Amino acid sequence: MQRILILLLTVNFVFITTVHADEATPKIAEIKKGQRAPYDGILYNYEADAQMSASRESTELECELSIKHAKNREKTRCDLAVNSAVVSLDATKNKYESLMKIKDQEINRLTKIATENGGNYRELVYIGGVVSGVALSVLIFYAAVKIQK
Asked: Which strand (E) or helix (H) includes residue 44?
């Protein structure tokens, strides 16, 4: 939008100056002291003054539009970065909450299994100890017999 406005203003400025070029061309004349002016300097007619003022105003307008466009572009980039970070944070929070929920469910499931079968483990440990003790004794006897031969 701003580029279109700048283009239109530039085309309009060029068109107006070329259309009115035949009517009154801008004139700049030097004058010296004593030539109906009290000091040395440059004399502009109304057309030259208008052209310089219009050029200065259009340059200021272009500069303002360029600055406004750059500010809007940077604001949009910052807003995009902030919104992206917010979305990422929300996704991470949801992932964390889901993982914690799954962990809590697993802990509850394992706790329930452990509390339901609490008395049966003592018997299994006793039987396991007896079996491993007998197996170890047989292996030691077998090794002792092999060493003597």
From this structure: strand 41-44
